[in-house]
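User: Let's play a game. I give you a shape written as tokens, and you guess the letters that built it. Ready? Here's round one.
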């Protein structure tokens, strides 16, 4: 929850990154949205792994 509030509409970026972790093809977000940084992507991956995702 804390991650998605970092930027406007950031939930979209995080969902797409999470979908890619699950092995689905999800393109990068469109401008003006931004994709998560490498550090944020790693934190999201750790969260998904911790709750039992892919």
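Assistant: Ready! My guess for every position:
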């Amino acid at each position: 929850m804390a991650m998605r509030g970092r930027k406007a509409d950031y939930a979209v970026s995080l969902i797409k990154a999470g979908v890619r972790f699950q092995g689905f093809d999800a393109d990068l977000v469109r401008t003006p949205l931004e994709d998560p940084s490498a550090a944020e992507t790693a934190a999201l991956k750790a969260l998904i792994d911790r709750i039992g995702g892919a």
